[in-house]
Amino acid sequence: MKHTILSCLLVSSPFLFAQQYCMTGGPTSNADSNVKLVQMTGVLGVINHIGCPSVIGIENYTAQNVTINAGGTYSLSVEFGTCGGNFAGVGQVWIDFDQNMVFDPNESVGTWTGIPPAVATVFVINVPVNAQNGITRMRVTQKEAGALPLDPCASFQWGSTMDFGITIANGMDCTGYIGDNTSDPIVVSSIPFSDTRDNSFCYSNDNLVYNSPDIYYRYDVAPMYNFLNVSLCGASFDTFLSVVDLAGNVIAYNDDDCGSQSALSFSTVGLGTVYFIVEGWGNEMGAYTLTIESSDVGLDALSDNAVSIYPNPNQGELSLSSGSGNIQIFDLLGALVFETTCTNNNQIDASVLPNGTYLVKIAGASHLQKLIITK
Fold first, then answer.
1. What is the bridge-based pairing of β-strands 186-187 and 215-220?
2. Nearest of 188, 191, 194 to residue 298 by alpha carbon
3. Partner of 286 for a Cys bridge, out of 37, 113, 237, 278, CB 3.0 to 4.6 A?
4. pLDDT on residue 324
5. Is residue 122 very low, low, confident or very high in pLDDT (cuts 50, 70, 90)?
6. What is the DSSP letter of 29?
7. Residue 57 sits in which domain range?
8. 50 pLDDT exceeds 90?
């Protein structure tokens, strides 16, 4: 279905990058309810935390770290207690197995309901076999007078929220999985383009529209394509697709176009570099194929340009009819294959290019020109 509230937000606001764990929640009072004990033993390391006296806000105890193996089973003991009066409340524990810096609902390892004092609750932690290798976090929250499920990022009056370190071993090796953010995007080198991936592992959440993992594609807009069609139709999950510029400003976006999958078309006129961002609606994730095509090539007759190239066809050596400027030559897939600067009608030596048909962009010319090289 369409999500109109989000649409209004996207029209008026740039996308935000660089996700990190929420650290501004937790209790606003250090009275009464509080996690009194957290104990866990891994294949390496031990967590042994005594909670009282209570602390306001989210407590960072990630220096206490245990190593656990993907596919393994471990026990975690938590005493949901008090540092003062005894009042009913609830508790919940999450481990960020996919390391997307979000404690997703499916990463909850257990809950508690009761009135302190109470014996420690033992949670059985079954580590997913596709958990991602590396250092992540476990969050333990107790909220007085609360209701399940808890929000791991919420602020409340009485209780506690605390983080511990978890190192996952023997899990998913995400080395070589590019596209997690704008610093290491998947490069769209030519149009048409097709790429199949799965964002349910090895990808985190950098684009703050939804909590799902997102994957970034970078495209340096080729001038012969004035219009692009981008599609996620056929994906295995409810997708959200967006296009942003280098500053994160929204150029185009789509939620539902083909069922619950996304597709969009937009003009590239005047654009430089853009990012295509693939993510899920809410916490959705799964397999998809991204396709990018163009139905519009900006190629007009040579007579429409004040500056032209000659002779044409040629053997790779050509000149400008007048003036000077930057020359870019693209193959028919849109890839830049040659670039130089011509001064005072100088001859251009593009003989390194093999025989074939190319498109030439001349600085100051209004349209692309066809170039045929035959040797």
1. parallel
2. 191
3. 237
4. 67
5. very high
6. -
7. 22-169
8. yes
pLDDT of residue 294: 85
**CATH number for 332:** 2.60.40.3080
Longest dimension (CA), the chain: 91
Q: 215: exposed, middle or buried (C-beta count within 10 Å: 0-12, 13-18, 19+)?
A: buried
Higher pLDDT, 326 or 167: 167
Identify the weakest region by mean pLDDT among 151-155, 196-200, 284-288, 370-374: 370-374
DSSP 1-15: ---HHHHHHHHHS--
DSSP letter string over 221-241? --TTEEEEEEE-TT-SS-EEE
**Separation of alpha carbons 35 and 164, rounded Å:** 13
Task: Report pLDDT digits (tens) over 254-302.
Answer: 989 899 999 998 888 788 899 999 999 988 999 999 999 986 555 544 4
What is residue 314's DSSP assignment? B
Shared-domain flag, residues 311 and 359: yes
- Return the closest-CA partner of residue 231 out of 315, 327, 295, 151: 295
Residue type at 340 in one-letter notation:
T
Round to whole Å and give the CA distance between 339 and 348.
10
Please state, in angstroms and rounded to a whole number, the distance separating the CA atoms of residues 228 and 281: 23
Query: Pairing relation of β-strands 369-373 and 356-362?
Result: antiparallel
Same domain, 263 and 329: no
And the tokens for 356? Answer: 């074939």
DSSP state for residue 105 in the 8-state scheme: G
- pTM of the full structure: 0.60
CA dihedral 206, 210, 214, 216 (to 10 degrees): -70
Contact status, residue 9 vs residue 245, Cβ threshold 8 Å: no
